[in-house]
Every structure is written in C-alpha cells, then in structure tokens.
Amino acid sequence: MSFLPKPKVAHPGLPLNALGLNRRDYEGVMSTLCAGCGHDSVTAAIVQACFELELPPHNVVKFSGIGCSSKTTAYFVAGAHGFNAVHGRMPSIASGAHAANRHLHSIGVSGDGDSLSIGLGQLAHVIRRNPRMLYLIENNGVYGLTKGQFSASADVGTRSRRGDVNEQRPLDPVLLALALGAPFVARGFSGDREQLVPLLKAGLSSGGFALIDVLSPCVTFNDHEGSTKSYAYVREHREAPVALDYIAPRRAIEASYAAGEVLPVTLHDGSRVLLRKLEPDYDPTDRTRAAAFVQERALANEYVTGLIYMEPERRDFHTRHNTADAALNALPFARLCPGAGKLAEILREFR
Amino acid sequence: MSFLPKPKVAHPGLPLNALGLNRRDYEGVMSTLCAGCGHDSVTAAIVQACFELELPPHNVVKFSGIGCSSKTTAYFVAGAHGFNAVHGRMPSIASGAHAANRHLHSIGVSGDGDSLSIGLGQLAHVIRRNPRMLYLIENNGVYGLTKGQFSASADVGTRSRRGDVNEQRPLDPVLLALALGAPFVARGFSGDREQLVPLLKAGLSSGGFALIDVLSPCVTFNDHEGSTKSYAYVREHREAPVALDYIAPRRAIEASYAAGEVLPVTLHDGSRVLLRKLEPDYDPTDRTRAAAFVQERALANEYVTGLIYMEPERRDFHTRHNTADAALNALPFARLCPGAGKLAEILREFR
Amino acid sequence: MPGSSAAPARVNDFTIRFANVNGSGSASANSLILKAICRMGVPVVGKNFFPSNIQGLPAWYEIRVTRAGWRARGASVDLLVAMNAETYARDLADVAPGGWLVYDSSWPQELLHSRADVQALGVPLAELCTEHFEGGRTRTLMKNVMYAGVLAALVDLDPAVLRGLLDESFARQQRLRDTNVRALETGYQWARAHWSCPLPLRVERMEATRGQVLIDGNTAAALGCLYAGATVGAWYPITPSTSLMDAFRGFCAQYRVDPATGRHDYVILQAEDELAAIGIVIGAAWNGARAFTPTSGPGISLMQEFLGLAYYAEVPAVIFDVQRVGPSTGMPTRTQQCDLLACAWASHGDTRHVLLFPDSPAECFTMAVQAFDLAERLQTPVFVLSDLDIGMNDWLTPELTWDDGYRPDRGKLLSAEQVAALTTKFHRYLDPDGDGIPYRTLPGVSPKAAYFTRGSGHNRLGAYTEDSAEYQDVMDRLARKFRTAATLVPPALSDGQGASLGLVSFGSCDAPVREALAELRAGGLAIDYLRVRAFPFGTEVEEFLAAHAALFVVEQNRDAQLRSLLTLATAVDKRRLFSILHYDGLPMRARCIVDGVRAVLAEGVQA
Amino acid sequence: MPGSSAAPARVNDFTIRFANVNGSGSASANSLILKAICRMGVPVVGKNFFPSNIQGLPAWYEIRVTRAGWRARGASVDLLVAMNAETYARDLADVAPGGWLVYDSSWPQELLHSRADVQALGVPLAELCTEHFEGGRTRTLMKNVMYAGVLAALVDLDPAVLRGLLDESFARQQRLRDTNVRALETGYQWARAHWSCPLPLRVERMEATRGQVLIDGNTAAALGCLYAGATVGAWYPITPSTSLMDAFRGFCAQYRVDPATGRHDYVILQAEDELAAIGIVIGAAWNGARAFTPTSGPGISLMQEFLGLAYYAEVPAVIFDVQRVGPSTGMPTRTQQCDLLACAWASHGDTRHVLLFPDSPAECFTMAVQAFDLAERLQTPVFVLSDLDIGMNDWLTPELTWDDGYRPDRGKLLSAEQVAALTTKFHRYLDPDGDGIPYRTLPGVSPKAAYFTRGSGHNRLGAYTEDSAEYQDVMDRLARKFRTAATLVPPALSDGQGASLGLVSFGSCDAPVREALAELRAGGLAIDYLRVRAFPFGTEVEEFLAAHAALFVVEQNRDAQLRSLLTLATAVDKRRLFSILHYDGLPMRARCIVDGVRAVLAEGVQA
Ligand SMILES: Cc1ncc(C[n+]2csc(CCOP(=O)(O)OP(=O)(O)O)c2C)c(N)n1
Ligand SMILES: Cc1ncc(C[n+]2csc(CCOP(=O)(O)OP(=O)(O)O)c2C)c(N)n1
Ligand code: SF4
Ligand code: SF4
Ligand SMILES: [Mg+2]
Ligand SMILES: [Mg+2]
C-alpha cells in the first residue's frame, strides 16, 4: 500500500537546463491519482516550468493542504522540501516558512475545497500579506478525495455522481482574489499546457503572491456532460483576453510584436512577460475593469483564462516588513541576542 | 462589576407602534461601551428600526461574536433571545438557528475584526447560504476590545495609539460581499441615523441576507486625525449614489418622485424601498457596475454609502432547501419519525 | 487439485481475503459474496481495507465465515483471491499454511511465486472476460463478478442465492443483470469444469442469520437520527464519517419529503468546515431543533472552541466521531479508538463531556437516539464515539427494532404554555431541581421567555458577570450536572461475576474481546467482563472495578485513553489496570487479547 | 482622626486597595505608589483587577506592603482608597475591621454609609482638582495623582521618591511633569494639613528590594524570546497575552533594527486568527527560525488541529498560554490555571505535549529561553503555561541575568556541512541515537537534504505509508521521545524533606503556597513542598510523591487538572492526593491553602 518506487533512469538524450538538470530531475514520486486526472497535467506543467526557469530543486519549497490536488506536491521536484499540512491551512504554514527564509521559491498547491471552503480565510489573508509565492488552486468543482461532494466552486445545476444537483452559486477565486487586492491573478486550464507553463513561470517570477486558478477536471467525479468543470466544457467555454509569453532574464525578447498590441512587463527577477492582447479593450493592469470583464464573461458562462490582472509595483511581504536581506533562519545568534550588558540597561526601566 | 440595572420607567408620552410598544421597549441593558462610541449610535438606530417595523420583540433573535461591537446585542430588544457566540463564528450559529425556525427576525452584529479576520470564512459562506438575516459589521478599523490593534479594514497609513503605522491594504467588506454574490449590500455611518435607519429596515425586510457595513468610529483607539475611520473623516468623505426611503407594507407610497430618478423595489414582506438616484449613472441592481463604482471611489479615498446593491429575485436559504413552511423546531414528532413499520421496510434492503 | 488437499474440511469456519485494486469495481462483487453467505443462513464478518485515494492502489476485503457467529476479524487467511498483481507476493505470504490462493492465470508467469504449503489455483479471468464481453470498462467490471462465480463453485455457494441478489440489484436494469449473471455463471462453470469443487473450505446452509441484517454503523446511526426526529444535519465531509450524512440524506429524501408539495422536513447543510458545522448544530439545537454533525478526529480538533461554548452556555449538540487513525491526518482509512481524551475534555478551561460508546451498528442506532435525548436532557454536547470499523463495515446485526411509544425527551424545555404559566420572571441558569440542570426556552415562543446566551461569565440569572462568587456558582452547578449525567447515560454491561480477574473494554473491541474470552474461559481461566458504554461512568463501573483484583483494559490506541478515564474518574487503583493496546489501524483480532492477557498473567499477576 | 486609631502600628505590613473606574487614568497613579514603595526598599505586591471592557466599569488595584517579602495577594484590605462612588458600599464592606477608608468628600453625603470599625477619611478631591486645574481631562487625570499624594502623607511615602519617579516619567514633558507634581503636592499637603499623618499603617525604608525589579511576566517572557533569538512572532490579539507581543515588538524595535539601514532582524505577524498564528509559527520553525505565539484559552482550542500536526510531523513551536478564566470566553480579565489538560493532550489521536510552568516573571524569562531550546531539541511544540496573574501584574523580581556564554540548542538540525558529509541518503524519521529524536534539515541548505513533511501516515524514512507496522513504528518512537522529554525539562524543585506530609503545586500558586507553608510550619506542622515545573514529570516528582504519605495538590482550577496529570503520569496512588482548588478568578491567597490543609487534616488524614 506504499508507493511504487519510480524508476529514475538516466535519460541521456533529454535536454539539460543551465544547471545541467533534465526535465525528469524536476519530477517527484509516482502519482497515485486517477488516470486522466487534470491535476497530473498541472504537475507536469509545474515540472516543465521549474525546469525551464532553471530553479535549483533544493531552493524550491512546496506547500499543500489536503485533497487529491494537495497530494501533488509529492509528485514534482523531489529534490525540494515539501510540507503537506492540514486541510485548508497551508497558507499560514507557507507564510511562516517565507518569513523564516525569503530566498526560497515557494509553490503552494491547493484545491477548490481546500482554498474556498475550509481555507477561505487563510487564502484571503495570505493574499493580503503578499509573500512571494506561487499559489495554485487546482479547481475541479468537487471534493475529489472525499468522493465527489460539491465544492464552493461548483456551478449551479452541476449534478453529482450520486445525482444531487448543486443550487448554490459558485465562488470564483479569480473574482475573490481581485476583490481582496491580489497583485497577480491568472487562470489556466490543465488541458492547455501551452498557456499554463508561461503563466506558472510568470507567477513564480512575479515577486509577490501569484494566484493561478487552474481548471483541472476531476475525471472520476466531475467530468460528465453538464459539468462546467469538465474537459469538454472548459475547452469550449474559455476566453483569453491576453496571451502571454514569458521571457527569461538572460534571453532577448524574441517575439516580434506591434506596439499597442503588446505590453512587456518586467518581473521581480528581471524576467519579462509579453502580454499580447486578444481583446482590444482589455487592460490587465486595471483591477476594476479586469473584475468587470471576468464577471461579465461569467454571466455568459465563460471562463476568462490567461493573465487576468497584474500589479507591477506592489510591495511584497518582506519589503513591507522591512526585513533584513539575509534569511532570518540564518542570522548569527550574536546578532540576535543583545547580551548581558544590554539586559541590565533594559531592566533599569523596571525599577 | 455587573451591570447597573437600567431603570425601565414607563414614559406615558412616548409614541406607540401598532403593537402598543414604545421605543424604549426595544432597548436592552445599559451599554458598557466608551462614551461616544459609534456602536452605541448603531444600537440606537437598530432600536428605532425595530420599533418602526413593529417587530414583536420575542420574534427577534440577536447574534454576535466577540468584540465591543458584538457586545451590543445585549443593548437592544431586551425581549428577544440573544446569542453572544465565540469570536468570528457567529454566522454558523445564526445559520443553524435560522434552519431551525425560519420565521424569526435575525439580527447579527459583528465587528471588522470579528468578520474580516477570524470570521472571514464564516462571513463568506453565510453570504453564499443566504439566510434571511440582517448582518451588521460595525466597522471601526480597529480591534476595540483588545485595545487598538489594526483590523483588516484599517487603511494604509493609519496610525495606532501606540504609534505603529498600518501598511496592509484594507479589506472592504462591501467589495468582498459583492464578489461573493451577496444579494443586498449597503454601507452606513453610525453618525447618520437618518440614512442608517431606513437601510436597517430595508435589510430586515429584504427576504435574504442583508449585509450592512456601518462605519462606526472607535473614539478610544481610532478617532484621531489621520484615521480614515474617524467621525470627521467619514463625515467628509462619503458619497451616497442613491438615497433610500423605506415604505412599510401598509402605507401608501408618499414620496413624490420623478420617473427615471426613482426606482421602487418591493421587498420580501411587501414593504418597499424607493431608491432615489443621486448619481445618474448608478444602478444598484447591477453587481458589476456597483463593484466598479465602489472601487473607483475607494481609489479616491471616498466611502460609498447607502444601498449599494440589491438583487430582488434571489432564492433565500429555505427556498433553496425547499424547507417546509412550518418551523422545523415545531414539527410534531409523529411527522418526523417513520415508525416501526417503516423500519422493517427499510431493513429489507439490508438482508 | 482442490478437493485433493490434505487439509481437513472446514465447513462454515474460514476466512477469504480478496486482494483488489481500488476503484476497479470489486466492492460490489465482494459484497455479493458476503450477502450470499448471509442469505444461506451462515454468519459472516466483512472487513474492508482501502487506501486513502480514489483509484489504482491496493485494497483488500476479508470475509470471515463463522459458524459460531463471532463478530471479529478472522484469525488468518484461508483462501486468498489475488486480483492485484502488484501485491501478489505479499498476498501469497499472508495465506495460512494449508490454504488456497486463486489468481488470474492470464498474468505473465514470471510474476508468480509459489509456496509449497499453499495451493494456487489459476483461472484465466482476463481471457474469459475478453472472450465473453465487449468494451474495456465492462471487461474490468465483469472480472470481479466472474471471480465471485469461481468462488461460488469453490466454497459451494448456492448459485440461486447469488442470482437472486443480482436480480434484486438490477431489478430495473435487465441488460446489466444479464451481463452480471453471465459473468457469474462463466466463472462458476469454469471452476467446476476445471477443478473438483468444492474445496474442503465450504459453506453449508444454516439457520443462524434469520432476523439479522447486514448494516454498517454509519447507516444505522443515520437511521437513529431519522427516528430520533433530528431535523438539522450539518457536516464537513471527512472519511470515515461521510457515509453517515449520505445515508441520512437518503433516508430523509424518502421519509421526510411531503409527497404533495415536495417540501422538506429537514435541512442538511454541507458547511465550509467543521467549525461551521458544529456552529450550525449549536445554533439549531439552541433554537430547538434536534441537530447533529458527523465527523472524525481532525474535525474534533477544529470544533474544540465551540464545544467549550456549548458546555458552558449549556446548549445541546450531538456529535458522531467516527474515529480513524490519528494523530493529525494520520491514516484516514484505518480504524482506531483514539479520540476519547480529545472528546472527554474538549476545549480549554474546566470542561467535561458526555461520551457514548457503541459496540456495533445496532448500538449506533440506539445510541444515536439516546444521544439526542441526553443532549436535550442535559443541555450539553453528547459524543457518539464509533470508529471506522463499526462505521464503514457491514456487520451482521439483529434486525433493528423501534418502539412506537418512544417520545423524544426534550428535557427541561419550557413550552409556550409553561412559560405563560410562570408567575415569576424566567431565569436561565437556576437549579430548582437540584440536579444541576436548568430550564430553557426557545425564541419566538413567548414574550416572557427571553434570555441571553453567552460564553462569557454569567450568573445563575443569565446576566453577564465578572463576579467571582457568581461565576463559581455556575461552575459548581455544571459539575453537579455532570454527576447527574452519570446516572442517565447507558450503563455498562457485564458478563460473568465472581472471578477475581476482570476485563474492561468498549466499542468495537467488544467483538474480539468476546471471542478472546471464550477462548480464555475454555482454557480454564475465570474472568469477568465489563463493557463500558458511556462516560461519565455509572456506579456499576465503580463496583465492577472494585470487585476485581486485576483488570485488563482493552482498547485501540497507544496511550491507554480508556484506562486514563477509568483512572481519573473512578476510585480504582491504577496498578490493578493492565492495558492491552492495539493501534496499528486494522480491526483487532481475538488473538491479540488472548495473548495480551496470557502475557500479563505469565508475569505473575495475582489472579 | 488618623493616628488616633486604636489599631497597633503596622509598619511595612498592610494592604491598600484602590477602587477605580477603568479608563480614568488611575493605573499610572497606582503604579507610581507601587514603585515608590519599592524604591524605598520595601517589598511590594501589586494586583490589578480590571473588567473586560474599555472604559467606565469598576476596576480595583491592590498594593500589599510586605516586609517579609511575600509574593501573594494580601490577606485583607487595611486601607481602601474609594474612587468609585458606584462601588462604594461593597468597597467599604471589604475593609478589615480597624482599617481605613479614603474617599472623595466632594461626593454627595447620601452616598456614604459608614462602619463603626472603619475610619473614613474624606478628602475633597474633585473640589481640589477644580480649584487647581483647568479642563475636564486634566482634572480627571490629576485626581488620581492627587490621591497618590494623599496616600503618601497617610502611609509616609518619601515625597522625594515620588517626585523622582515623576521626573523620570515625564523627562521630556516638563509641563506635564509640573502638573503631576502639583497634584501630588496638593494631595500630600492637604492630608498633612487636615490629619495627623502618618497612619499606624506606614512605610518605613528598608533595604530589601535592592537588585530587584518590578516586571510583569509577559514582558519578561518577551525578553526571553528576544534573548533566545526568536525571529518570528505570530499572534492574534487576546487578553491577557497581548502585552507579550507588544513587549516583544518594543524590544525588537530597539535591539533588532539595523541602525544603518533600518532593516529588521525579525518579523512580527498579526495573524487573522489563532489557527493562522500557530500555522505561521510551525511554518517558520519548520524552516529554521525560532518562532512563537502568545495566546490564551480560546486560542489553545483553535490551535488543536495544528498542534497535532506539529506533534506528529515533529516540528518545533513555542506557545505561551497566558491562562485566563475558562471555559469558553469565560472571564477574560481574571486568572486561572485551567488549560493543563487542553495543552497536555492537545489534538485528537494519541498526542502528548511538553508543558513548562513558570511561577513568576523571572521564570517567564528563563523558561521562554528553555522552551525554544526544548522545542528544537525535541522537535515538538512546547507550551509555557503562565497566567493572567503572572503575565499582567508587576512582580518584584530579582534582576534578570544573562549568561553571554549561552548558545541556542538547535537540537539535531543538520548543518550544510553535516549534510554534505552524509554518506547515505538523508532520512527524516530515523532514531540513530535511541532517544526517539530524529534528525532534520532545512530547505535550501543542500541538494541532498530534502524530505517531505506530512501529517498523514509516514514511515521512518519520511515516505507516505498506510502500512500498519510502519505507522506503529513511528508512533512508538514518538512515545520514546516523550520519555526523553522527561529527562530534559526543568526539574521540579523541593523544599523540605523527611516529613510525611507533602504539598505539590506549580506556577502562580507558588507565592501563596510559600506563605501558607510558613504559617503551617510555624504552627508546628511538618510538611514538604514540591513545585512542579514541567510536564512530563521527571523522576524527582515520582520520588517526592513516593516519599510522602499524604500529598496536597494546590491548583487554580475546578477539575484538579494537575492532580489528573500526576495521577496518570506517575505511580502515585491517587487516594494520597488531596486537592486544594481555587477557581474564582482572583489570585489565590495563602489563607485558602492554610485552611484547605487544615480542613483535610481535621478529617483525620494520616500525616
Ligand atoms: C479538517 C479536515 N476536514 C475534512 C477533511 C477531509 N478532506 C480531505 S480532502 C477534502 C476535500 C478536498 O477537496 P479539494 O480541496 O477540492 O481537493 P480535490 O481532492 O478535489 O483535488 C476533505 C473534505 C480533512 N482532511 N481535514
Ligand atoms: C478566539 C479568540 N481570539 C481572540 C479573542 C480576543 N478578542 C476579543 S474581541 C477581539 C477583536 C474585536 O475586534 P472587532 O470585531 O473589530 O470589534 P470592536 O471591538 O472593534 O468593535 C479580539 C481579538 C477572542 N475573544 N477569541
Ligand atoms: S478523484 Fe478526481 S481529483 Fe481525485 S485523483 Fe481522481 S480524478 Fe483527480
Ligand atoms: S474601545 Fe472603541 S469600539 Fe470599544 S467601546 Fe470604546 S470606543 Fe467603542
Ligand atoms: Mg476539488
Ligand atoms: Mg473593530
């Protein structure tokens, strides 16, 4: 009942990144999810993004809650520390870890149950804190691991495998994040790796809290006709107002673009994203209009995907806390402890 | 250290409502809040609204969490049952009570700490459930009862009495409620009873979950210059896109209005509100535009007050659950228990 | 060749284990076999071992055929149906010497090892399925039904009974029924054609299951909620408690919907988390509805603050804790009895809670009803502590019965008339009856009945207080109320008397304990047995403990939590309490207890 | 007239109570008096009784002047300063016979009652304030300073000491200083002009407070966090723990900010609730920062799930539980020791936690440091259980000292070099040293150090498991680790030996216990004393319990929580443990213990 060890065979033919690692070096243990689960595709996209971003695996930290989605942190970047916390409360664990060492690349993976029900408060408040972190909601409209109850993102009219019909309106994590002031809000689809990988890379490079709502169908409990979180539905009903190219710091901007159509934005780490507008009106830096657009399309039962909103100049957690550059967990004790002499001084006030 | 008994003197001169009760019959025990606290004014407005709506006191139920604001449920409608729950978790208590008896008038009073920090998840989910309930956030930007820490609604730059400066962006409960799909969203000001009383009455009559964010300054910890939740600031920086008149079921519409300027809306219990638009563009039934307007004004550091959004045709909690008309807590046992005969029938499946 | 085995015939007394892959549809085949044996009048025990994922991992199912009617897990595996190539090696290793193993001979040969003392029977299931059925999904599903057919031949199940069960299951799906019957027959015929059936392990009709049903504890508890008149259920999904609410919803859909209007006499709320679930229950119960929440360990942890509120503000609430392996997330699909302390003292401050310990689905039903009565009578949370073994496995259970004369005990809840008749102002926290239980009223009932509920300091009148004496007065009454609780909860049951050795246990341990006691007593040991059914303990517990020189306390946790409660809440000298602990997550077997008792005795304990 | 009283002079041994209205500025006047007495070399005890609101309700403050240096609350009120007309009647009733009462004679006469055995001294404070000061706010505030002046005259405080204190407080606010001095002088002169001062109750210079400071436990604990090198503090505000984080923030602002860059060597996070606060602490500590959270009862309830995770996944965490009156919201501004069980077994499943019990602010300092060392050494949550009495009152405390040779015990945390030197793959949950404590690594340190942390079932290698033996293996090691903890925590301290009577207590009970013991021993009773300082208990606790025929267990809760821990975790026969319980929310007095012991002995307990 334990995992099968995954054979780690050297694949001499695989391309290497600047660290000399190949894609497989960014994989983890073998997935135990259902065959065809959207989450496995997201895992593959994360592997790809980390490989392409050339992240040293041990500088990555992985956080998750509980759920099928939350299990996936074990399935990528085996060389990274991971923390599979309790249900819905991963954001606080990630916040604490980020406080202790600001230099790690944090990836949080959560589900719609984990983030929008039990974890809604923690999600809202980690958004406010704005730690540098990529936060994925692998959104399938159900509780996969507990076998198919509706989640808060289930659409009205969704029918469960048992036959119940959901009558509660869905929470849209994108709208919520926009209302909560998130500085980077995107939506992807597990079935579209081409769009997802650059989003992940942009999120990881954004310098603050990057929320990506990834529509990730649950093939076991919510992929039937009539489900708006099914592969078929999402494929047909999504709209991307902007397309995104991700450009690593050291590469020249290769894409050719007409001015006025493309908005290049420089990210925290010097990388850039090029935003090609598909909808002429769409402005991904205007929160109010982004929200209005998402809401309008939602009324037409469409999912807006892509990079929905981005606030380039937002102070992140450590900037706001004015924390030292060095990781707090590495400060020498002598710098932290005022010593006996100062204690006497302090106590003078207490006479 | 117990409360002073409040002398309940009969005031023969006070006007009576249709139940033969006067305003003082809607009061509670004496407040122990600081002199001048905004919350006391809100209490007075609630007393007024209940009196004017002619609610039988024992058909009112009062719910609150913990905080100065949450204490106030003891200070109005002494003849009603009250439940002062734990910090931030009143919405679930109120939901359960509403499930048990749909016929009571529920009034929930909370604070910005109670609702936007520890209670954010519960607030979001009670909004989704949409029980018939008036829910007030007495919003002062601080934790009053624990002596002045910033709450999640504290504005950037607010200085605490101890001298710290808040650097986190505020959560706006109005924007949040709009993003979460709340059917009735309003904002009032404790210092403007004329606007607040009709809002409370409309909320109590709305037939669903009515959220009113009441700016209610804390004179002890957050009423100084520079605080955007101070009396002075709120008085100067608020804007009401629509004004509201509340019309009880049995009264004729008295206000004269020019068509196109005034929108009459009939509420759940047959009462009506007349919405007089002050901003010609403003449409309080368009969620997207309401949110955009609030957000825009917020960028200009203005508070939008009044009835901000209202969705007339929204199915409330019991409608969605298709619950019996009678209160569940009053159903005769014979109707609930299938009896011995049926048990044998049920068990046939288990052979 | 089967039949040729040297092993002696074992009629109606053996254990079959099925090694499956979860999500492959084996559950219905296994349950088909369980039910068939039961219908043949032979007592059975079914235990399901499944992983905490949805599809593709190993899962096992055990059926014990037990002429004697034992209720615990079987001692060994006599016949193994190996349907998971991945676990084949360890499955084979688990078969008792002299046992049999059925495997899919379509598998590549190199997979298979063998044991000299186990007879392996290969049946080409995959091939047969390909031959007989179309489509991958059908083939996968029918493989399960086919092995049921093979098994029927091997252990001599009545094919008519099996067919009857399929007829019932697919009464409205004729095509599906036919497919299933075909698979069953194919397996059955193949086995009979290739082997001399049955094996010495076989099932012979008895009359020992008449009047019994196969039901799991969660379903039985849900029935209890239905019959007790619960109208509000709130929960957050968590294994292994989820099926309780699923069952309740199913029953309500059938028995609580007005056929004319379609309107519901209940509300079921899937809350956003366990804090909200218990909050909803408290709110509903405060407002006079019978309300409950099913949960498991992590939910209990999250409910602590609210549980303290309900204790102190005196609000009824019924909590089903279907225990699983802790601490933390632990092993969600494994069983344990590990939340006694977390429930008994739930929340900070001086709190105490009432716990009920069902031993079986039958008591899940009766105790669910008692829990609502006690919660209202005592105005406090009541926990029903079952576990995954009871909650999710089908237990052979005497048919549940109902007394139509039952009326809910609403406790000291004043009706509108009673309030109207009051000559003095109503006060919430007085103790006019001296039993520590105050009177309560509901909102909306009368203009004279209002009171204020709070978790902050209050006095006997219900008013806010920070006065020491007033505070202490209420706390002392609460202690008095808890003593009253000890007189109201279901009493412990004892078996035997006069021995100087005693054994104390509870809940799902009862099944293996009874079997172990039979063995120990058969071996000449005089030993009495007390099954505790609730906390706080009644005087009968005190008396049993006092009457025995040495006592074994059998429980399924590491830290001896029942022994802790006994040590603290009775006069017993703890040196007389010897723990037998089992906490590996699998249902306990009798052997563990027999060995445990003998080991202690071997150390020279005074008997 | 004062001075003319028949009462014998009581120099440096009496108690003054101030009856105030909260939010009126009396706190600084009261603390001025406390400090002045201390500076005159005379030991003092200050106790603050305040309501759970912000303004306008009754509040009291007591100053015990205690030549003998007792640390508990005074036995009676000898001099009452009545500044709250609303509570005048009960304040008067509380004065000991022969005592004095100072009141504001500007009050209407009908308010006043009198007692023949109490001498009432009226001083027209309101009038004097109106006369001497302008503006309502100043007049209200100066009334307090003025009664301090009156008191100075009555009990003979050195005016120069008082003025010195005002000089220091208002060093940079000359005008304010002058106003305060004027108020002080006015009161002082008025009293001396109208009465013959001092009273027989009076303060006389001693040398008994040299090298001592007046500090509260929360401030001392914050200092401990600072000195232990804590860099991450997360909390959610809750009385009475809030001032701990306030103090930490203050110290950090002074000692942890780079003067050149203004950058912080710490992060303080006000979380959205206690669940998040402990989550942040666990995340930070998992990632190698020393991290802590201060809270109180309701916070402990909310943290349960995460505490179970930290226990099982073995993550350090330091929790300060400044206990207040429970259950539920209870009385947030009253003191109790009522969270022992909630902390010791926090969370569902088989969990156990390490608790430290400071008896005073001094130990809040030292134990804060120990808590971080133990949390990292044991890789588990460590609770420092103080209470409102210790945490929020100023205690006379020997000056805290620091050993510059101290180095944090990071426990079995592998450095980058150690990881690099590993010849085998790193595994998280092995027990190479046999003490139950595994080795850990931090993210980012080395490509060879990664491991996966989870609250779900895992084996000794850190891999996910649902295997019974692998699960049990880890649980058994955790039990072993807890036994190791008992050898590492601060040992219990004993006083006396050889008596057959013993008294066991802990925390803030120590102060009244010592005073009670002195009285009991003076009365000829031989009795030894053990102050428990941690859970799990070391062998010294076992030995003390074994060595005494009868033991009194003194604690501040209803349910005998310490006695429960002793009963469960040691070999003691619980019949030898006699509880003395105090749980009315006010700090315990020695009398309660003396009476308690005598009552038990009167019942004929074998001594
Ligand atoms: C406190 C707590 N409550 C309930 C559970 C049970 N539980 C496990 S996963 C889950 C829901 C997961 O849903 P989601 O986050 O959407 O993940 P998915 O499986 O759909 O990817 C629940 C309710 C738990 N582990 N802990
Ligand atoms: C679980 C828990 N944590 C903390 C507290 C302490 N507490 C009491 S009130 C309060 C904040 C109240 O702020 P708000 O809701 O804004 O009310 P206000 O006093 O400002 O009206 C806090 C943190 C508590 N009572 N319970
Ligand atoms: S149940 Fe759904 S979410 Fe879970 S692994 Fe299977 S397909 Fe994925
Ligand atoms: S502290 Fe602030 S919120 Fe609380 S009562 Fe005083 S003014 Fe009102
Ligand atoms: Mg999901
Ligand atoms: Mg507030």
Can you put this structure into words, describing what you see?
The complex is a heterotetramer, with 2 copies of chain A (351 residues) and 2 copies of chain C (607 residues). Chain A is of the alpha/beta class and 351 residues long. Chain A has a single domain (23-320), classed as Thiamin diphosphate (ThDP)-binding fold, Pyr/PP domains (Rossmann fold), CATH 3.40.50.970. Helix content of chain A is 30%, strand content 19%. In chain A, strand 11 (262-266) and strand 12 form a beta hairpin. By secondary structure, chain C is an alpha/beta fold. Chain C has 4 domains: 2-202, Pyruvate-ferredoxin Oxidoreductase, domain 3 (3-Layer(aba) Sandwich), CATH 3.40.920; 215-398, 3-Layer(aba) Sandwich (Rossmann fold), CATH 3.40.50; 416-488, no CATH class; 493-602, 3-Layer(aba) Sandwich (Rossmann fold). In chain C, strands 10, 11, 12, 13, 14, 15, 16 and 22 form an 8-stranded mixed sheet that branches. Chain C has a 6-stranded mixed sheet with strand order 3-4-2-5-6-7. Chain C has a 5-stranded mixed sheet with strand order 19-21-20-23-24, sandwiched between helices. In chain C, strand 12, helix 10 (297-313) and strand 13 (317-325) form a beta-alpha-beta unit. In chain C, helix 1 crosses helix 5 (159-169). Chain C is globular. Chain C starts with 9 loop residues before the first strand and ends in a 5-residue tail after the last helix. Mean pLDDT of chain C is 96; it is low at 1-6. Classes of the chains: A alpha/beta (351), C alpha/beta (607). Chains A and D meet through strand 2, helix 3, helix 5, helix 11 and helix 12 of A and helix 1, strand 9, helix 7, strand 11 and helix 9 of D. The structure holds thiamine diphosphate (2 copies), iron/sulfur cluster (2 copies) and magnesium ion (2 copies). The site of one magnesium ion has 9 residues of chain A, from helix 4 and strand 5. One iron/sulfur cluster binds next to loops of chain A.
